[in-house]
Amino acid sequence: MDWIRLPVGLLQTNAYVVYNKKGRCLIVDPGDEEKKIHQFVQKKKLKPQAVLLTHAHFDHIGAVDILREQYSIPAYIHQKEKKWLSNPLLNGSEKYEDVEPVVIKGADHLFSKEEKTAIDGFTFHVLETPGHSPGSVSFYFKESGLVIAGDTLFKGGIGRTDLKGGQEKELLKSIRDKLFSLPEDTYVLPGHDQVTTIGQEIKHNPFF
């Protein structure tokens, strides 16, 4: 399996496309710039299978409807944030003057617990990592040695907790219990900024 990081939108949120040798792919956190994502999919001649959302803040969900309609694919999110997709107050888009309120359709599938999930050739573990938001999840691709962590863990930082439903103690616990328990050579694909590893954050992250 391979992947690409595509920073998109006002906040330069990292959208990811993970793809395999069979030409299938998953689109993770398409927050904006659907054309940029589509161009990569076309270039690699990929066939999208689903949209995965680590959480429902506006900068991670803005292009969901356009992409899932374009490719006729389902969108997945944790059930705790199912109402956030259509509510600008919850997804944070109403907070920014230069951002149009983000309202998208409900998710097609809801995660309700930690589980091993298979989608058309892709197998990954859904890890519940709340704290940045109540329904934040991370997607752990064990065989590929990577975890897509959304806004839970960053290179040298952690997700903000001053938004709706954020809790710092819960966030730190999620990182310690769920992410720092992964192999140290696991790549961390965060929701913003550069890629890091679990080992690097255990040793150098100033919050721990």
Write structural notes for this entry:
With 208 residues, the protein is an alpha/beta fold. It has a single domain, classed as Ribonuclease Z/Hydroxyacylglutathione hydrolase-like (Metallo-beta-lactamase, Chain A, 4-Layer Sandwich), CATH 3.60.15.10. It contains six helices and 14 strands. The protein has helices at residues 34-43, 58-61, 64-71, 88-91, 168-179, 198-204, and strands at 2-8, 13-19, 24-28, 47-52, 75-78, 109-111, 115-119, 122-128, 137-141, 146-150, 153-154, 157-158, 187-190, 196-197. It has a six-stranded mixed beta sheet, with helices on one face. Strand 8 and strand 9 (137-141) form a beta hairpin. The chain is globular. The two termini are 31 Å apart. One of its GO terms (molecular function) is hydrolase activity. Keywords: Hydrolase, Metal-binding, Zinc. Residues 12-192 form the Metallo-beta-lactamase domain.
Keyword list:
6-stranded mixed β-sheet, Metallo-beta-lactamase, Chain A, 208 residues, 6 helices, hydrolase activity, Metallo-beta-lactamase domain-containing protein, zinc, metal ion binding, single chain, RibonucZ/Hydroxyglut_hydro, 14 strands, alpha/beta
